[in-house]
Amino acid sequence: MNWQEICEDKNLQNLPFKIELNKWGQIVMSPAKVIHSFYQGKIQTLLESSLTTGIIMPELAIETTDGVKVADVVWVSDERADIILDETAASIAPEICVEVKSGSNTLTEMLEKKALYLEAGAEEVWICDKKGKLYFYNSQGPTEHSVRSPDFPKQIKRKRRN
Questions:
Q1: Which of 21, 75, 92, 127 could form a disulfide with 67 if both were Cys (CB 3.0 to 4.6 A apart)?
Q2: 96-146: per-residue pLDDT in tens?
Q3: DSSP H/E element including 5
Q4: Whose CA is closest to 99, among 79, 80, 130, 125?
């Protein structure tokens, strides 16, 4: 299967799982727990308040050398958005790709996705662990903070709104 076929398949609509493709065209599904959605939403909200240009999106399909992967949250510049917004899967990765680690993911899988996003053109990849700690990477390796959003917190707090 290819990504277009998956997007159009009525049997695959409204599944409670994130769907990705591997390089052989096989569907890979990942169930998400509530805490995964919580971190994903907090990261999106914090990005929206810290970056005043570009577009923040959840669940973006990105073409990689290992099939289509779906980043949990992305920030894409207006220039790249002009390229990818009408595509079925982004042909170039957004500048920032964020993955939230879930219980079904291994660290090895997260690091493989990081490498795939960087290879596809991402400038930064962030990994949020199961406790909300963020790790920042660029093509040179781990970094202390984001270059695009240097004040972004290194820990997502689990407190609720008042």
A1: 21
A2: 999 999 877 888 989 999 999 999 999 999 999 999 999 999 999 999 999
A3: helix 3-8
A4: 125
Q: List the chain domain ranges.
A: 32-143
Where would I find the H helices in 70-152?
Answer: 78-84, 107-119
pLDDT digits (tens, 9 = 90+) for 36-62: 789 999 999 999 999 999 999 999 999
Burial class (CB in 10 A: 0-12, 13-18, 19+), 78: exposed
Q: Which residues contact 14 (CB under 8 A, 6 or more apart)?
A: none
pTM: 0.84
Q: Does domain 32-143 correspond to CATH entry 3.20.20.150? A: no
A 10 A CB-CB count for 134 gives 20
> CA 32, CA 16: separation in Å to the nearest integer?
8
DSSP of 31-70: E--HHHHHHHHHHHHHHHHH--SSEEEEEEEEEEBTEEEE
User: Rounded to 5 degrees, what are φ and ψ at 102?
Assistant: -110, 170
Beta carbons within 8 Å of 134's beta carbon, 6+ residues apart: 126, 127, 128, 152, 153, 154, 155, 156
